[in-house]
Design a protein that fits this description.
Order of helices and strands: HHHHHHHHHHHHHHHHHHHHHH
Radius of gyration: 26 Å
CATH topology of the largest domain: Growth Hormone, Chain: A
Number of domains: 3
Structural class: mainly alpha
Number of helices: 22
Largest sheet: none
CATH class of the largest domain: Mainly Alpha
Helix content: over 70%
Length: 528
């Protein structure tokens, strides 16, 4: 978007144009995040509908975020080649096609493919929206702009889970996909009015296809290796192949990007200390944000027996607190040192995760909701401030690449976070299941008492006498698995808290160097 097109739009719509175009840009982002969050409450339902385990179903979230991460890198080229308006509309159309395909899916592979299509569209829209807002707001109001952008981003997570739960309970999982389409359609209509088109026609600019292929290989092979290791065995040759291809692709990508004339990602922005630290913190932020949105509905449905609607409603208070906190955090980020805001947010989110370690089958709804609200205050303190801190030292011509790179690292962290959380849940559940099962021997008095109690219950329900022991043994196994699952979730919450608190150390590197004030020497009074 060049300055002449911006000035023309301001002349046409007046000084409030910055809010019109910001609302239009945020609508696309809201549609993406709405789709990303609604699917999480549907995960247990989809597992049952298609008969798949957590090692497969997590790809509905991981595939979406991974595709979003890669497609973010083509945003800059698309804008230069086709213009802001055509890029925005085209990305929303791809997203809508993926949503319709997901709603009509007949198997889990088709559904995962649809989620990847949605992720491709989402990855192009999100950095585009940030660049639009940075272009129409002056530098001294960028914290406010990021607060408004963050407000739009958190509206969808606030409404999405609850809306997804209602759609599941009233209708079925198909409507979870279809619901984001109307929002995207409204965004397309407004884009034709408020987002400027390309004024200068010419040949398509060159594009770094080699870099795109290398980074796609790095992410896809790495995530596939992580998700398949538990199932195939970590010593399996195919797992070694996945990780080898991923590492080699990463090394080749870094070398290529530093030496090619037109890199898909300007890695030299990472040479700036503040940007590099902010990118690292952004990865952890993404892991916590997307990971919590994935793990909390899964926990309350699988361990506490919540309905999809109830699990969605659990996320609403935290989303409302985050909506209220974002504008405040955006304004504070213009006044306070960035590192102080980020330190506060990381600490508060870590405390929230430690509190959720205590969750069990009887944890009250509002206790869990308050724990989530505490964490959302922390996230709201970090998100707008981190973006401003990351690009504060970049030159104006680096803003587009910088915003794309910081979004890339956050989304990559989200994909890794969901994958690692899924892996951690599987491993810790298996560990606790084996440990608890080993204690259930005929000499265990608690085991015998539990078998007797289950036997009585089954007898009262009319089970034949000869089938009662087998039924009681099955119920014991289910009890062991439920307890093991609860302990596994507790360990994962603890790990998230440890990582967030530990990341407070590198955040200190975001401090600006102190400038020594030159004090003028005091003149001695002349003797009379």
């Amino acid at each position: 978007m060049n300055s002449s097109s911006i000035e023309a739009m301001f002349a046409r719509f007046g000084p409030r144009y910055q809010y019109y175009v910001s609302f239009t840009a945020m609508l696309g982002t809201v549609a993406m995040v709405l789709s990303a969050t609604m699917i999480n409450v549907a995960v247990p339902v989809i597992m049952g509908a298609f008969g798949v385990g957590q090692d497969t179903v997590h790809w509905l979230s991981t595939g979406f975020i991974a595709a979003m991460t890669v497609s973010m890198l083509i945003n800059d080229w698309c804008v230069r080649a086709f213009g802001m308006r055509a890029t925005y509309i085209g990305a929303l159309i791809v997203f809508c096609l993926g949503a319709v395909m997901g709603g009509l899916s007949t198997n889990i592979s088709m559904m995962i493919t649809a989620r990847i299509f949605q992720g491709v569209g989402a990855g192009v829209v999100q950095p585009l929206a940030m660049v639009v807002m940075f272009q129409v707001f002056p530098p001294e109001q960028r914290g406010k702009a990021m607060g408004l952008f963050g407000l739009g981003v958190v509206v969808a997570p606030t409404v999405g889970p609850a809306l997804g739960g209602v759609l599941l309970d009233v209708f079925n999982w198909h409507f979870v996909f279809f619901m984001a389409v109307p929002v995207a359609v409204v965004g397309i209509i407004l884009a034709t009015i408020f987002i400027p088109g390309k004024q200068i026609r010419g040949p398509l600019p060159s594009f770094d296809w080699t870099g795109l292929i290398l980074v796609a290989l790095f992410i896809s092979m790495g995530l596939t290796g992580l998700s398949s290791g538990q199932r195939e065995g970590w010593q399996a040759p195919i797992i070694a192949v996945y990780f080898s291809v991923s590492i080699i692709s990463l090394m080749a990508f870094v070398y290529w990007e530093l030496n090619t004339a037109n890199p898909i990602m300007q890695l030299r922005v990472f040479f700036d200390r503040k940007f590099a630290v902010a990118a690292l913190v952004g990865m952890v932020l993404g892991a916590g944000l997307f990971g919590s949105i994935y793990i909390i509905p899964l926990f309350v449905q699988m361990v506490q027996g919540y309905s999809p609607t109830r699990s969605g409603l659990l996320m609403v208070p935290g989303g409302l607190i985050m909506m209220l906190s974002f504008p405040i955090a955006g304004r504070l980020s213009d006044r306070l040192p960035h590192y102080q805001m980020i330190l506060f947010g990381m600490f508060v989110y870590g405390v929230s995760s430690f509190l959720m370690m205590q969750a069990h089958t009887d944890t009250p709804f509002w206790v869990f909701a308050v724990w989530i609200m505490i964490g959302r205050v922390g996230l709201a303190s970090v998100m707008p401030t981190l973006t401003v801190a990351a690009i504060s030292n970049l030159r104006p011509e680096q803003l587009s690449q910088g915003s794309g790179a910081i979004n890339f690292t956050r989304q990559l962290g989200g994909a890794l976070g969901i994958n690692l959380i899924s892996l951690g849940l599987d491993r810790r559940t298996a560990f606790f299941s084996d440990a608890f099962a080993g204690l259930q021997t005929p000499d265990n008095d608690s085991m015998r008492l539990l078998m007797v109690q289950f036997g009585r219950v089954l007898s009262q329900l009319g089970w034949p006498f000869e089938m009662t022991p087998a039924g009681a043994l099955y119920l014991v196994g289910r009890s062991i698995y439920a307890q093991a699952s609860m302990m596994a979730f507790s360990d994962v919450f603890m790990l998230i808290g440890v990582v967030y608190v530990g990341m407070m150390i590198p955040v200190l590197l975001l401090r600006d160097p102190r400038t020594k004030r030159k004090t003028r020497p005091q003149l001695q009074p002349r003797p009379r």
